Amino acid sequence: MSELIFPPYLQKKDKIVIISPSGKIDKKLLTGAQKRLSDWGFDASLSKHAAKSCGQYAGSIKQRLEDLQAAMDAKDVKAIFCSRGGYGTIHLIEKLDFTLFKKYPKWLIGFSDITVLHNLYQKENFASLHSLMARHLTIEPENDPCSLHLKNILEGNLPQYSCSPHKLNKEGKASGTLRGGNLSVFYGLRGTSYDIPPKNSILYIEDVSERPHAIERMMYNLKLGGVLKELSGLIIGQFTEYEEDNSLGKKLYEALADLVQEYNYPICFNFPVGHTTQNLPLINGAQVELIVNKKSVELKFKPNTPKE
Hints:
Layout: E1 15-19, H1 27-39, E2 43-46, H2 61-73, E3 77-82, E4 107-110, H3 115-123, E5 128-130, H4 134-139, H5 145-154, E6 160-163, E7 172-182, H6 183-187, E8 201-208, H7 212-224, H8 227-230, E9 233-240, H9 252-259, E10 267-269, E11 282-284, E12 287-292, E13 297-301
Parallel strand pairs: 1-2, 1-3, 3-4, 4-5, 7-8, 8-9, 9-10
Antiparallel strand pairs: 5-11, 6-13, 7-12, 12-13
């Protein structure tokens, strides 16, 4: 597979549209995100139905689709900021038209349920941003490191992350295409045309409110399906809002370490990505280098020329 296309980086006063493609969200968080993005110098606006409510969703399927498609089609929009996850983007995945987007590519930003759209964008050969969303931009201070990393990436300043080691890490050095996101969400796309290509990929995973045995079951699917053996590296992020219930007879990370011990590529645990304050923005589709050693874990993004 060829390298994915990077949308153009943003300049001051470029337009960012905030949409709500899945769960409904408090209007205060929408306006908070809008203010933060505007403070960064961008022209941030809310989509027509961003604050709508339809059951647990931010509007009907038609309304959510209309907002996302309009943002994708707009020539002057340079980034699409998803306000939150939840559940619902799966309703849109088969209905989106990339005809105009391919003429005017732009960054898609979000995580959690937005993993559905990240997989779709990779299928269409475009990179996207797995990143914090509206609550984070509203609540965290101006000097929040993850927020500033997002700003820097949007402006074309790619990060070089360095994180603390973990006792379960497997040392090594690898290069590949960075892919991943919420484990439950992309697990739900396994066996479809929206599945991620594992070969030469450095996969990262995170999840929230999943019991340990459910996480292990999903990982066994990746193992038995031949995904794990094709990877170049594995980044195990944050699993939050669950209890270590002893269902596996050991702690979750230990169970996952046993499951992947046969692979020779670098593996790191406790990487700061997921439903936590420390949620480092990651570029799906970027060429990266993963270095795991006794002293640190380093993730380096290689330069990429955006499509103008």
